[in-house]
Amino acid sequence: MNRYYGMQEMYEAKQDGSEEWNMPKERDPFYEPPDSPVFIASSVVFLQSLAYLIDVEEQFPIVDLSGQEIGLLTVGLSPCSTTGKELRGEYVENPNQLVGKNIAFKVKVISAVGLPRRILKSNCKYRFFGSKKMTTTPTVSGNTPSYGHEETFQFKPVTKEVADYLANSNLYITFWGTQRPRGSASRKNSVSTIGSGSGGVRDGPNRTKRVEKMVQHAKSADNRNISVKALETVLKGVDDNENRKTRKQSMKKAGSTTTKSRSGSKKPKAAK
Questions:
Q1: Taking residues 229-247, what's their average pLDDT?
Q2: What is the pTM of this model?
Q3: Burial class of residue 87 (count of CB atoms within 10 Å of its CB; 0-12, 13-18, 19+)
Q4: Residues spanned by the domain of 114
């Protein structure tokens, strides 16, 4: 809501002709720092196993805003006592059997795999039944983060609402993080390739002039096509004179070799 009022203030200042509409970055409602966390995706975790006191550890799809699956999230769910000891083999046939008992439930956000390489850092957020604040995992770098998160939620006692929540609802886990701008690596590589190394356009101060001269010559000759081979020759740093000289030397050498082989050969003797 703060951004909404900031936009409204900026609009009114602009309408009034005031220079105050051009706000600094710290007050600009449209400015977003590049390193600020943004919503990336979400995952839906089924809680029905907890309603029957069954512990599970499964992988759940991570889905982005466009509905595409971008990875898998490993989550563990365990029923436990109020002291934190996990309950093993104490199953119930009906979730209503939990009502009136003191039970805790442990949520483990373990790790994620298959995330896009553009993700630099990420964490997960979720809200379990009765929680006033969002529970947040540690922020981890990389596209295969290991969160290692555990949180225990106690109910003394379990109410009918809690039992219904476990039996009929899901845990909605959201992914937040910072991302590498798309295409930045490829643009950087292309610039470095052009600007440095052998064969780069900037290798040799006269290449740009030679290309311009080639274009002017084509225009004066009313020719709209320039040979690709000619451009490659200029960009590789070898001009036409050097090419001609190399070709002449090769032809001369080949010709002298042929003449020598002919003069050195003997005519076969006629058979008697």
A1: 53
A2: 0.60
A3: middle
A4: 34-179
